[in-house]
Amino acid sequence: IVAKRRAKKLQAIPAWFDKEEVDHIYKLAKAHNLVVDHMVPLMSGLVCGLHTANNLRCIHPLANSIKGNRHWPQMWEAHHGQ
Q1: Distance of alpha carbon 23 from alpha carbon 17, whole angstroms
Q2: Exposure winner among 4, 51, 52, 56, fewest CB in 10 A?
């Protein structure tokens, strides 16, 4: 599963990827005992997000665990046109 996730992450890196910006987000998370969440999941039956700074956020590990890869911000509105 880890190898599959790593491969999917590599596939989700666009040409305009800013490694310094993404590395900064990971450093912030580590400094505050948080984890980095892909708001739009990299692997989901519904969507495929990108591994870019604008799709990352630092959140509590428990919140990330609860979220899983089943939903993303504004999911309800996206599905129901609201």
Answers
A1: 11
A2: 4
Q: Which structure tokens are listed for 17? A: 């990827």
Rounded Cα distance between 27 and 37, Å, is: 13
Q: Read out DSSP for the chain?
A: -HHHHHHHHHHT--TT--HHHHHHHHHHHHHTT-EEEESS-SS-SS----SSGGGEEEE-HHHHHHHTTT--TTHHHHHHT-
- Of the candidates 34, 39, 32, the residue with the CA atom closest to the CA atom of residue 56: 39
Q: Which residues are paired to 57 by β-bridges?
A: 37
Side chain identity at residue 42, one-letter code? L
Question: Residue 20 has which token pair?
Answer: 């310094």
